[in-house]
Amino acid sequence: MKKTSPVKRAAAVICIIFLVALYLCTLICSLIQTEFARSLLRFSLAATVIVPVLLFVFLKALERIKKK
User: Fold this and answer.
1) What is the mean pLDDT of residues 30-35?
2) CA 60 to each of CA 13, 36, 55, 63: distance values in angstroms, whole numbers, following the listed order
């Protein structure tokens, strides 16, 4: 079994915590009927897609840097 680096593990844990917080924010914002809540809802839905993609790009860049 291949060992994962501590940096990858830490980045994954931070991403998971951030996504859980975003989901909680999304749930709360969906219940509040203000314009600010709608803006937060749009942001959290967009970040739900963007954060994992950025984490993937970061980890691939880190992998390439370590190979050189």
Assistant:
1) 80
2) 17, 35, 9, 5
